[in-house]
Amino acid sequence: FQLALIQLQVSTIKSDNLQRACELVREASAKGAKVVALPECFNSPYGTQYFKEYAEKIPGASTQKLSEVAKECGIYLVGGRSIPEEDSGKLYNTCAVFGPDGAILAKHRKVHLFDINIPGKIQFKESEILSPGNSLSMFDTPYCKVGLGICYDIRFAEMAQIYGQKGCQLLIYPGAFNLTTGPAHWELLQRGRAVDNQVYVAAVSPARDKKASYVAWGHSTVVNPWGEVIAKAGAEETVIYTEIDLKKLAEIRQQIPILSQKRCDLYGIEMKK
């Protein structure tokens, strides 16, 4: 099946971002994409100073638009992180997924909050304003089961391993790595998660805006279960397409059967919730 990643140019105007995102979703659907993914923070600038201002309930106005366009196009739509989610006085970095009937299939709240300090380069602390999610998120399609993470979640290999154990063949990470971590780790982490678990990994970023307070790396990417980059964007707004070949995935798992050769008598990873 065909997967499309929408690397959107994000502005400070929520309605413009949402309208442009829906236009590109329709374009991707018209070109045959069955699963379409939007980036992290596609409907608000990325930054702790913006999260309260742009926050909405889920379901809410923005997710209603995503629901409508998913139903209109008859696709599976991974809604990036449309807006910070407000729930019971707390804010979450949340990705909602919609089915071809417009129903919400999954709602992933970012599990690992991005609190880092790289002296002289970047400091950021999501936990100043956001609360962490407390569950992993998967959804089924007629093609395969899909596991979800958001940005910093990709650094935690155990999460991807559990998705693999639960039968996921595609992992999707809306993300917004920056100009420090992007060139160093963006592709490396995707290739690592893909080859370790023999799954497809797709990471979808906003386009780069050098005038923004937080500058995203861009370079939305899809990696196959052999660890090969099979589609990659530059820094500008674009839509990239790739075929997710589950026959190839099965062949790789047969050739190097790591899933059946794990020494579960010596070690193991488990999901607690």
Automatic annotation (TrEMBL):
GO BP: asparagine metabolic process; glutamine metabolic process; oxaloacetate metabolic process
Recorded catalytic activity of this chain's protein: 2-oxoglutaramate + H2O = 2-oxoglutarate + NH4(+); 2-oxosuccinamate + H2O = oxaloacetate + NH4(+)
GO annotations of cellular component type: mitochondrion
GO terms for MF: omega-amidase activity
Transmembrane spans: none
SUPFAM superfamilies in UniProt: Carbon-nitrogen hydrolase (SSF56317)
UniProt keyword list: Hydrolase
Enzyme nomenclature, EC number: 3.5.1.3
UniProt keyword Cytoplasm, yes or no: no
CDD domains: nit
Stretches assigned to the CN hydrolase domain: 1-246
Pfam families: CN_hydrolase
Domain of life per record: Eukaryota
InterPro entries named in the record: C-N_Hydrolase, C-N_Hydrolase_sf, Nit1/2_C-N_Hydrolase
Family according to the record: Belongs to the carbon-nitrogen hydrolase superfamily. NIT1/NIT2 family.
Name of the featured protein: omega-amidase
